[in-house]
Amino acid sequence: xxxxxxxxxxxxxxxxxxxxxxxxxxxxxxxxxxxxxxxxxxxxxxxxxxxxxxxxxxxxxxxxxxxxxxxxxxxxxxxxxxxxxxxxxxxxxxxxxxxxxxxxxxxxxxxxxxxxxxxxxxxxxxxxxxxxxxxxxxxxxxxxxxxxxxxxxxxxxxxxxxxxxxxxxxxxxxxxxxxxxxxxxxxxxxxxxxxxxxxxxxxxxxxxxxxxxxxxxxxxxxxxxxxxxxxxxxxxxxxxxxxxxxxxxxxxxxxxxxxxxxxxxxxxxxxxxxxxxxxxxxxxxxxxxxxxxxxxxxxxxxxxxxxxxxxxxxxxxxxxxxxxxxxxxxxxxxxxxxxxxxxxxxxxxxxxxxxxxxxxxxxxxxxxxxxxxxxxxxxxxxxxxxxxxxxxxxxxxxxxxxxxxxxxxxxxxxxxxxxxxxxxxxxxxxxxxxxxxxxxxxxxxxxxxxxxxxxxxxxxxxxxxxxxxxxxxxxxxxxxxxxxxxxxxxxx
Length: 492
Prior knowledge:
Layout: H1 2-10, H2 12-22, E1 57-59, H3 74-86, H4 88-108, E2 114-125, E3 143-157, H5 162-229, H6 234-248, H7 250-268, E4 292-294, H8 297-300, H9 305-326, E5 331-342, E6 354-363, H10 371-437, H11 444-478, H12 484-491
Parallel strand pairs: 1-4
Antiparallel strand pairs: 2-3, 3-5, 5-6
């Protein structure tokens, strides 16, 4: 081995190879990536559009990554834990991340030296006739065995940083996929909570409809009794029957929506819709949080996973410019081959059986039909495309938070108004029944007041449910996202 290294030092290629190796300190041709400047501000809405609800938003508040814990509900927490453990879409995203990690490692390997080892026994028959020997002392072509062991080492000298830019791009794509996993986790928790809240809302609506039907039947019984006593016209019975029939039609549609929500929830949990019958939630499982922590816009761009994924893809696109640009310049490779060959196996590692080759190769594109320059142009265009996509993602996120902040404020106003309306309708019905009992009025005012109260009950339940659904969407849109780490902690 010492003789090999001596030969390397005295080889005329050694100086050139050493010079090429020194060039590896050259900086890549692409610029160092810097994240784009993000929009800043203290709020998502201009001052005239801000709404001050019962739970006014707290800009800059600390929103936990496990945001659903703002609804202190063990049932909801258990459901989301089950969804994280069983959702197939989430497993798909996690598998894509594993592939991205492996791809990054493979790309990093392009910077390291490669070594291939081969061993080959072969049987040869020498054709002496091709050398002009035939007959005489050589009547037959001889047979002999040849044993060879060798290794080929090569090292790409990344003079212009093309390989390093490729590694940078692969790492950025891995980061993007990691953020995609976080985005999938966040979306999954939001969808799961929203379907559970929908089930709770539909259950509350069905309770109200059952109460409405009970009131309708009571009104119909009162009308029939009055009709038999001759104190009410027959059209009062028809009116009461018509109202009962109309209200009975509400139930099938609600049950159908309830079934659909259960089926959707089962799929989110990685189960068959046939396993959905056990899902049951009530609005009491979603107690309204006392505070509404909301990330600042300047914090949102550094925490929301879809924005971070878009930024990582922009980073990858910028690094690809360096990859494409480096192809315009010489590509340098150092290689060495060592071969031990002998006719007898015991002689294979003798010095006389050694052969080696040293090579420093340089290739420079000269004429390529403009393919390489077009590649650089395309890479720069893809970077502009990624930048526009990043900016659009940021603006979309801000728009979502702004819309939901407005919605939550208006939801609370609507809920307060519906509660007041229900209270007044309840008082109106009580007065109508009192007047009817005193003989001051007929049953029509009672039926009408009952209809108004039932309508107010349904509107109040729907407003209550809408507030919870918008709160869920707000926490998902304005949070820092459920990370793989926090999700795995939740599964524990």
